[in-house]
Design brief:
Blueprint (H helix, E strand, L loop, with lengths): L5 H10 L3 H5 L3 H18 L1 H9 L3 H7 L2 H4 L2 H16 L9 H15 L5 E2 L2 E2 L1 H34 L1
Antiparallel strand pairs: 1-2
Helix pairs in contact: 1-7, 3-7, 4-5, 7-8, 8-9
Amino acid sequence: MDRLTRLEATLWSVALPGFAQLLGGKFLKGALLVFLEFLINVNSNFNEAIMHSFLWEIEEAFQVIDYQWLLFYPCIYMFAMWDAYKSASKESSRYDFLPFVFIAYFVTVGLMISSKITIFGISLGPVFLPMLFLIPGLLSGWMIRELLIRYQERFRKIS
C-alpha cells in the first residue's frame, strides 16, 4: 500500500471494507473482505435497517435486522480498517490495533443492547446506538494504546 497514506487507506475502508486492500495490490485479501462485507450486509438486511433508521422508522429497523448476521459486521469492518491502516503505515506501534479492536467490541455490544436502551425515552435503534458506542470504543482503545506505549518507553529507559 505504498501509494496510499494511512488516512486514505482508512477512509477507503470506511467506504467499503476491502477497497484499500484492492488499491494496495492485495487482491485476494481485498476481494475476500468485499465478499464478506457484501455477504453479511445482504444476509443481515443492514441496508434496509439503515434506510429505516435514517427515516426514523426505528421499529421497522428492528424488525428487518438479522442480528445473527449483523454481529459479524463490526469485526469485519474494523479488521479491514486496521489492516488498511497498518499496511499503509511505514512506522507503526505494536499497539496500533487496540483502538480498532475496542471499537469493534463496543459497537458489537451497542448492537446487542440496542433494543433495550433508550436515551431520553427515545430508542436509537440498531444503527444509531452502535454508532454512538464507537466513541467510547475509540477513546478507551486509544487511551490503553497510549498507556502501553508510555509504559514500554519507560521500561526501555530503565533497562
